[in-house]
Amino acid sequence: MDFFHYQQNQLMAEQVPVKHIAEQFGTPLYIYSRATLERHWHAFDKAFGHHPHLICFAVKSNPNIAILNVMAKLGSGFDIVSQGELERVLAAGGDASKVIFSGVAKTEAEIARALEVGIRCFNVESEAELERINQVAGKLGKVAPISLRVNPDVDAHTHPYISTGLKENKFGVSVEQAREVYRRAAQLAHIKITGMDCHIGSQLTELQPFLDATDRVIVLMEQLKADGIELEHLDLGGGLGVTYRDETPPHPTEYAKALLDKLKDYPLEIILEPGRAITANAGILVTKVEYLKRNGDIHFAIVDAGMNDMIRPALYEAYMNIIEVDRNLTREPQVYNVVGPICESSDFLGKQRTLAIAQGDLLAQRSAGAYGASMSSNYNSRPLTAEVMVDDDKAHLIRRRQNLDELWQLESVLP
Ligand code: LLP
């Protein structure tokens, strides 16, 4: 559930009309709802009840420091994949001791910085990385807490570009190799084994793949116990899907119950890394209809947001709902392809959408809070959009729109 709703045919973000926010800050514009973010985070946190657990928000889904700060105030942990994300978490007031560091290519500098600030755990993705972490920790006179990311070879039944738990994916260490790598880790002087993790993919709409992955890591945990290696936590990653159209993903409560049924007898803290399930439906992308045009039988609504602002439809053929900001019941509905200003045919926000609109109207793309602003670019020399967070009856600018002269600020001409 989220806090975007119609009131007298006007789309509201909590208590504020979206139209007013767009008038004040211009379009294209991301708008987030604080109450929705908090509600989604609490849904995960409450679902695990008294079982020891830590919800580590996946920063990549939306790294704006205002969002991270809302999470930090809730007591959230963070799942990061780069030093950039780490510095954002710290800048936003996040607690380093609740940070989990995932990612296949951690550099020496990133490892050193994470050790310096005292993160909770490195999710190690290869034996080579394990050796590197040991060396860097040794140089700094520290001991690095680690978990091994196990690739359980489970089909997540999601888009191939966001599936990560299959043998052919680059992520983690196979179940077969993991036991050996753990034995090696146990011998290293600057490594402390604290956990095990796996993340099998994103936008999962069924429980079964999560449960299959959990079964596989439990078998491995038992083997490790026989080797004298005891774990303190099990991190089951992120990946719980959301409703973009008609998907019916499990609720966090259902998901937690199913996991706890398998894990309740193990004295392990459960760590989760949800991103999308917290942020997706807490955000919309507001865009203005610049032109309506017709090519043959196809009607186009040409809007001012493009694939540089929201790449999900272009990259994954993702369906995201598009609605009118002001519903005008006197207008004739028409079926439109909603397309952006970019010079690529993949530049669309949605195809075959029935909308009652005229030039100059505002549209809102729903579920845009995850992997929207965070994946945006300056392609076609388009400035990064502004971002606003609504908190009850107030709209706060949390990222100003990029100025045009900032587009080439990092560049220089030859002497
Ligand atoms: N943990 C790890 C190690 C991950 O790789 C990811 C996402 C997450 C947690 C969070 O997953 P979530 O709960 O958000 O599903 N850009 C794509 C999604 C890429 C996800 C990458 N990894 C999209 O727009 O659909």
TrEMBL record:
Residues bearing the modification N6-(pyridoxal phosphate)lysine: 60
Record-annotated membrane-spanning stretches: none
Annotated active site: 343 (proton donor)
Catalytic activity, as annotated: meso-2,6-diaminopimelate + H(+) = L-lysine + CO2
Amino-acid biosynthesis listed as a keyword: yes
Gene Ontology BP annotations: lysine biosynthetic process via diaminopimelate
Requisite cofactors: pyridoxal 5'-phosphate
One Pfam family matching this protein: Orn_DAP_Arg_deC
Species: Conservatibacter flavescens
Domain (Orn/DAP/Arg decarboxylase 2 N-terminal) ranges: 35-280
Protein name according to UniProt: Diaminopimelate decarboxylase
